[in-house]
Amino acid sequence: MASRQTAAQTGGYTKRARAAAKFRHQFPMHLMLLPCILLVAVFSYYPMAGILIAFQNYNPTKGFFNSKFVGFDNFNYVYAMPETMQVLWNTIFIALLKIVFGLLVPVLFAILLDMVRRSFVKRSIQTLIYIPHFLSWVILSGILIDILSPTDGIINFILKGIGIEPIFFLANEKIFPYLLVATDVWKEFGYGTIIYLAAITSINTLLYEAAVMDGASRFRQVLHVTIPGIMPIVVLMATLSLGNVLNAGFEQVFNLYSPVVYKTGDILDTFVYRIGLQNSQYGVATAVGLFKSVVSFVFIVTGYKLASKFAGYRIF
Amino acid sequence: MHHRTFGGKVFEGVNHLFLAACALLCIFPIIHVLAVSFSGSTAAAAGQVTLWPVEFNLSSYKYALNNPQFLTSFLMSLERVALGLSVNMLLTIFAAYPLSKERSDLYGRNAYSWYLFITIIFSGGLIPWYMTVKQLGLMDSVWALILPGAVPVFNVIILLNFFRQLPKEIGESAFIDGAGHWTILSRIYLPLSKPALATLVLFTCVGHWNAWFDGLILMSSPHHYPLQTYLQTIMINRDMSLFTTASQEELKMLSEVSDRTLKSAQIFIAAAPILAVYPFLQKYFMKGIVVGSVKG
Amino acid sequence: MEKKASYPKILATAVLTAAILVLAACSGNHTTNNESDRSSQASQTSNDNTGEAAVSKAEDAKGKYDSPITVTSVMGLSDQVQKSVAIKPDVVNDNIWTRGYEKELGIKIKYLWTVPGAQMEQKMNVAISSNDLPDIIPANPRQFKMLVDTGVAMDITQLFDQYASDFTKKMMEADKNIGLNQATVEGKLMGIPQLNGAIDAASMIWIRADWLKNLGLEPPKTIDDVMKIAEAFTKNDPDRNGANDTYGLGLVKDLMGGFAVLDGFFEGYHGYVNGWIDDGSGNLVFGGIQPPIKSALAKLAEMYKNGYIDKEFSVKDTAKVAESVTAGKVGMLYGQHWNPFYPLQDAKNKDPKADWQAFPIVSVDSVPAKPMINGSAATFYVVNKKMKNPEAAVKLYNYFYAKDPAISPDFDPAYHGKNGEQEKIPDQNYQLATMTSFYPQQNLFIHQSVNKYFNEKDQSVLENYWVKDNVEQIENYKAGDNKLWSGYAWAGPDNSAFNVIESYDKNDLFLQNGYIKADTESTTQKGATLNQMRSETFTKIIMGAAPVDEFDAYVTKWRKLGGDDITKEVNAAK
Predict the structure, then answer these.
(1) Where do transmembrane segments lie in this chain (chain B) (predicted)?
(2) Which of B198, C68, C192, C431 stands 20 to 30 A from C527 (CA)?
(3) Helices B227-235/B194-210 angle, 10° precision
(4) Same domain, yes or no, for C346 and C239?
């Protein structure tokens, strides 16, 4: 603010008046932001003092500032565990697949849904595909174990029908990670579709009319109007979802995995949970949390930069 | 639009079939839950219910709806959603509007957005969060469930992106006509962003309705739990090792608390209101938005 | 014009938002104010808060505080109490126990929070980590260790000795001081144990006796018999439904625990998968890496291969196995005393012919199989160092022992609450007491008395409240109320769970785990890795995905990855 004011002063009366006008113009916007800034300061930034726990041998009776500092011991502790590298790899593998399909499938679905002309059909399908989001993995895992059972599950029944040997999906190391991705996409794609539908609906209808006038077919409209129209939102969602590169889905894995698939199915969060069961100290959990945050940060910021460089679009 | 070629019709048919098939796959689990909730408890306990009730009866619904705790929690959840929705949406709009402006229009715009963005990624974790709420004296009040998440930064970013896509000329010409920010926001931005706002209303409702962990940690008595927190207490996998030392009285409750039909009925009743919200918001996704005229 | 009008509007909205925030903060403060109001009221009624400590010293050690004191605690609510709270929201703060404490002891109880029992651990972990703790802290073994390590727990060695009532001490003796031993750290008593029966945890075999009968088989005497029964249950259509849809041995993916597990099977091979045993020279060694476990695993792999164990056990948790049991697909499983209540009662409801009976575990050779027992306490009441009148904790503990156990001289059934009447009288229930603890042989005692009633027609046993209650239920079951079968299968006179425990007791078969104290440092650090390795190796061996010799590699790794350190620490701390 100061530099602008000096500039205004040297510029004389009109510039000062312009600055004043500018201030009057901007002031309400700062005011609008004020409550958010304050709330975030209190409920997000103030508690961040707790990040210190990651570098401490935290003792609750001593608090964040008087507990003993141990440098990177908590990080080294996890790093030195024999499973860590495998677990990290599993996490990234599963999470990346989920990011890719969790993005593409809803976008594709939103476009296909938009191409349905009958509003009743469109509405019904929309409502139905969004239901699985509301069932927890505890329920769904019970159902999946039945469906995927090698002895009496429906999937293997079908496989048998076309002459394929039954597969014990949930106990198969090779299949398990893909199963996680597939079931996760199945659970969440309907819910994910909503935002793209909103983006499609927000496209100016006149653009379509203009395209029709130019004689564009339905596919061309999708290609030249719909897709460019939702691109900013797709880029936004893609960039933000990069932050999940270490979130492979605790609830889901926890409810579906078993010792036979630990090798490919154990992820960072379930691993930390099991350590935590033995070791109810918050230092290690906070250290892993901080590690995840830093990685997310790096990924999102990279995505942000790439998007602004290649798509010319800054998401926030 | 008027020409429907043969290929177009085939595509339409295939598209319908494909989408319908996906929809079927998606409703399978909820139908299972419904079927179990209407079944006899022994049939459910034996895993004999798939998609149609066995020994049809309504007793689990009667039980659930007569459970005073269920009702209390239901009301608590409604209160939470109503308050949370108002606070969240108000703050989302207030933050997204200024941040959708260019840097030249709002001094410090980028600093603001990074300031907010950082909080999506970094957090102090469970313990400092708990202590903050405690220090502010919010424990055991509905505000403990609302204020810590009062600024949904993710939603702010989404909305500001939608705002940015509105044609700039409209806002500028309104300014020239002497309109202030409030007028522009309420008369132009908000009406033109109905699909985005409907989406965020939905996200916010769903978020508040489904949240359970904060209720567990920040409420001092189960009597004040929102519905999903209460539901969690009946869904949680019990630590079997505690049964070894449980008294006879506690053990006698086991078959009641493990009753699957009852659980299913409660899951369904708890999900029904939020499932019903979507169809109401759907009209905002059906019609396209018309903005001014399109050049060239 | 419109431009000017817009400022006040924005301002108004901003003010409104600020107002919401202020309101929120106020209503938040409101709660705190209320709390402090309440406590100040409490201190007013107690005349003078500051003189409290001095007064109490002058008081009779075991009697009532002249000016009432306030003690804070927290409570994990049992399922029954949760129902009571729904009926009567303030029941936790106003019930027969709190009134009794205040009237007879001069102690007012204030609960900082309550939580459903299943979530007690999670909530308590947060409270401990935030150092937001009451005077009396109910803690599980891990939390107990943490409270001791962080210096929250008070050394109550002397206090307990001085204030524990004679009956309380009698109970400690009945427990052979196992609970007190668990709560003792480096010679100091750091918490008051909530006693349960250590012997109750012994393994047993549950078998469908109706299937045995259908196939003309006898209950097992050896592991070979178990094998034969498993085979017959799998192959010979024990339920006579003409379909090949049953298997012999139920098993959950966790392999160890209290229902459909392997602990009892390993014990048949004299292997103790989670226990510490004497190696003969006075040193403790870990049972889970000894050769008997390997032999047992080889047998299990054979059973799996032959289809006696569910092919899909590795993904099935308790609920899923319970489903198979209820559906009548499983005929035998290793478990514990509580299995009749869940899920075997469901099986009985589904098929009244399903006659699950309990049998002692059997041995692979001529040496009798010994079930291992652990500690008697799973909860410890830690006294906060900051507590002003720590002796009050012992008084509350005494009070429970005075009023609740039916063998206590001051027993009053109203305090325990009548079975099934909690909905009418929600505030009479032993689970509402601030501190609870039980007569360690309570369940065995009930069973023995029930036996006397049914076998010797001894009516006098009915004078005991517990016994009367159980006898009534068993009579009702015998009169045809199938829903009460669980009580019969639990403590009844014929092949019930406590028949088995009694036979172990008579033959002196219980084997005490050599180490029952809190986890050592290395266990805390390495336990997760070791447990994971164990479940992986055992599951793969049973499923045939790894050869049985994989066990030797597991043992080597176990020792290297921290097992040897744990062994050293356990021997030093035992």
Answers:
(1) 81-100, 112-131, 143-163, 196-213, 264-281
(2) C192
(3) 50
(4) yes
Residue C105 φ/ψ, nearest 5 degrees: -115, -15
Task: With a cut of 60, say whether residue A147 has pLDDT above it.
Answer: yes
Q: C10, A28: Cβ pair inside 8 Å?
A: yes
DSSP C153: B
Q: Residue A12 — pLDDT band, cuts 50, 70, 90? A: low
What CATH number should be reported for the domain holding residue C295? 3.40.190.10
Region for residue B108 given its phi and psi (left: phi exceeds 0; alpha: psi -120 to 50; beta: otherwise): left
Enter the DSSP assignment of C429.
-
Instruction: Answer whether CATH 1.10.3720.10 is correct for domain A73-311.
Output: yes
Count helices and strands (H / E) in chain B. Answer: 16, 0
Smallest CA–CA distance, residue C491 to chain A, in Å, is 33
- CA torsion sign for A20, A22, A25, A31 is negative
Write down the residue that tokens 């992986």 correspond to.
Answer: C536
Q: Map out the domains of chain A as residue ranges.
A: 2-69, 73-311
Do C529 and A150 lie within an 8 Å CB cutoff? Answer: no
CA distances in angstroms from B27 to A136, B15, B32, B51, C332, listed in the order given: 14, 19, 9, 11, 37
Q: Which of B75, B66, B34, B67 is nearest to B51 (CA)?
A: B34
Cα radius of gyration (chain C): 28
Q: What is the CATH number of the domain that holds B202?
A: 1.10.3720.10
Residue C4 forms contact with A (CB below 8 Å): no
Shortest alpha-carbon distance between residue A235 and chain C (Å): 33
pLDDT tens string A228-247: 999 999 999 999 999 999 99
Q: Are A206 and B294 in contact (CB under 8 A)?
A: yes
Look at residue B207 and tell me if it is in a domain: yes
Query: Looking at the predicted structure, is the pLDDT value of residue C19 above 50?
Result: no
User: Nearest C-alpha of chain C: how many angstroms from A294?
Assistant: 24
pLDDT tens digit sequence for C546-572: 999 999 999 999 999 999 999 999 999
Can you give the residue range of the structural domain that contains C125?
59-196+376-432
Whether residue C268 contacts residue C361, with contact meaning beta carbons closer than 8 Å, is answered with yes
Residue C168 · residue C393 · CB < 8 Å: no
Contact C460, C440 (CB under 8 A): no
Q: In angstroms, what separates the C-alpha of B23 from chain A's closest C-alpha?
A: 5
Shared domain check, C240 and C111: no
Number of domains composing chain B: 1
pLDDT at C28 over 70: no
Chain B residues whose CB is inside 8 A of the C89 CB are 221, 223
Q: What residues pair up with C330 in beta bridges, in sequence order?
A: C247
Tell me which residue has tokens 């990651």. A54
pTM (predicted TM-score): 0.89
Give the residue among C321, C338, C326, C339 at the shortest CA–CA distance from C255: C321
Interchain proximity C200–B91, CB inside 8 Å: no
Range of the domain at B149: 25-286
Domain final residue pick, C432, C465, C480: C432
Number of domains in chain C: 2
Distance CA A53, CA A50 (A): 6
Give the torsion through C-alpha atoms of A296, B210, B197, B164, to 10 deg: 0
Of A59, A171, A277, which has the smallest distance from its Cβ to C314's Cβ? A171
User: Under DSSP, is residue A226 helix (H, G, I), strand (E, B) or coil?
Assistant: helix
In a domain, B291, yes or no: no
pLDDT tens string B236-290: 877 777 888 888 888 888 877 888 999 999 999 999 999 999 989 988 887 777 7
Q: Kindly state whether C14 is in contact with chain A, defined as any CB-CB distance less than 8 angstroms.
A: yes
Whether B124 sits inside 8 A of A42 (CB atoms) is no
Same domain, C386 and C528: no
How far apart (Å, rounded) are the C-alpha atoms in residues C556 and A235?
51
Residues C238, C332: Cα–Cα separation, whole Å: 12
SS3 content of chain A, % helix, strand, coil (to 5): 80, 0, 20
